[in-house]
Design brief:
Two copies of one chain form a homodimer.
Chain A: H1 2-20, H2 23-32, E1 37-38, H3 39-45, H4 51-63, E2 67-72, E3 78-83, H5 85-123
Antiparallel strand pairs in A: 1-3, 2-3
Amino acid sequence: MTARRSQSYACPIRDVLDRVGDAWSVLVILELSRGPCRFNALQRVINGISARMLSVTLRHLERDGLVSRKVLDSSPPQVEYALTDTGRSLNEAMGQLAQWAEANQPAIRKSRATYDAGMEKAAG
Amino acid sequence: MTARRSQSYACPIRDVLDRVGDAWSVLVILELSRGPCRFNALQRVINGISARMLSVTLRHLERDGLVSRKVLDSSPPQVEYALTDTGRSLNEAMGQLAQWAEANQPAIRKSRATYDAGMEKAAG
């Protein structure tokens, strides 16, 4: 009974964590929540992401139906990315977690420092 | 300006994603949200987790101050794990995301299938 109980939530959550567990995906979604954005502009605002990693991340998000891709009629041709409705709803769902993260970051850092100090003491 | 804007949310979110991005941590938190649990019982209900991985996961959660560890006065001695107040609040914040995951899983799967079919067609 308990095993089945676990299985029932493991599956969809893991599926989503493929994306939400990937910090680059989260940052791309957050950035696109401000509005559609071109590849180069995305790379500029997301610190430390390589062109290759951004390209892979966008492809995953597009595959999941979270991000749409539009080739602009410009010269040279440029590609604009935007959140889909599903992507927007994920961004909203992530909001609560982001607020939690912001609010609890000091407590987590403090706990880690205390824990590590205890470990050092035990080892020393 | 935009670069700084990105940095300001990247930091706490990444910090939390260390835990939330790890499916095992999420499953342990969800399981402990039902009440305190011993190591062996946790391993039994979380499908596929090895004793080593559960031990590492619990240590990380304890270090972050999300899970508490109590050695029970039993023979042989047993250890009981429970969510702390911070852990409970994280579980609540994850709730919205879990609901989203559950609700949107069919759409994501469908989108992936459509995307993959398009890729195959393009390659073929």
